[in-house]
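User:
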Amino acid sequence: MNAPIGSPSVDPELDRRIMAAALRIGRHNLGRTWPNPAVGAILVQPEGAGPRIVGRGWTAKGGRPHAEVRALAQAGAEARGATAYVTLEPCSHHGKTPPCAEALIAAGVSRVVIAMVDPDPRVAGRGVALLEAAGIEVTAGVLEAEARLAHGGHISRVTRGRPWALLKLAVSADGMIGRREGERMLITGKATYDRVQGIRAESDAILVGIGTVEVDDPRLTVRQPGADEMDPVRVVVDTEARLPLATNLVRTARDIPLWIVAGEGADAARVAALEEAGVRVIRVREGTGGLDMSAVFQALGAAGLTRVLVEGGSRIAASLVTNDLADEVILFRASVVVGPGGVRALDGNALSAIERSPRYRLVEESQVGEDQMRRYLRATT
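Assistant: Predicted structure:
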């Protein structure tokens, strides 16, 4: 699969630089390509004074056309003899579009550099085999660790049947997310607010519990200039399907997708009323004290979601952590102190379940305005 290390056609440092660029452009439609992964592709002609980029592409909204097809279209005849850099193995199966591996072969590329092999059983090395059978040199594993993180949602869905779960927590200096009496309270500052909007824009869906809706009546949209058509699916975990029809979420359900995950025993009349208002209702089994969160995420994966941002509240956050469902945690900590009347971020549990747990590793730490941001990944990710 890999070219010999001494091959004159291989410049490892150039491969890494261009693959890094492909990973960056692959994020352009992140959150809007599901159920397909957000892939980046760059075509480079090695001729002349130095390497020259002749085509760039990233997966289109809705998942089609694929990144390779868009890069080939931009390159045109200059694709012949070029090297293609792709962040995920080109597909080899016939779905709603022809295989990208065949498109690369037909275009006459001479070499394909792949960040990682696609774990999707419909591909899983078959794309590489097609390319090599056509006489195309293939190099795989360039910036693989970075690609596995970038494609974490796709990998999670095809290997575990559920989307990547990113838990966002905004907590006070004493580890609270608000006051117990249920009044809305802003913990973190404007810079954190802006950062969260960017995270929302790159998520397939935002998930909250019915308690958060009852307190905040949120819209769960991306509130940034130029953020039209960037709104993710809104998901409410609502065991009894009691979400009021007058909420902001339901009133906008025909414009921005709204899904309710309810228990199998939810009242049929309430479910029907929500569906009539344009809400998609997904039923899952109930666990002790509410819905089985593993079943919730399996159902969301079956519906096509690959990346879900979880924003609240404390019971859902605790459930994700205790059931080992949180693949990534972004913790924003403010200097404000809530005091003894506050609600703990993890439903009565200390944040040490994340901060001092061997299940999570700290991968990033920075200052966001007046707040401190820490990002954790599951140790097995």
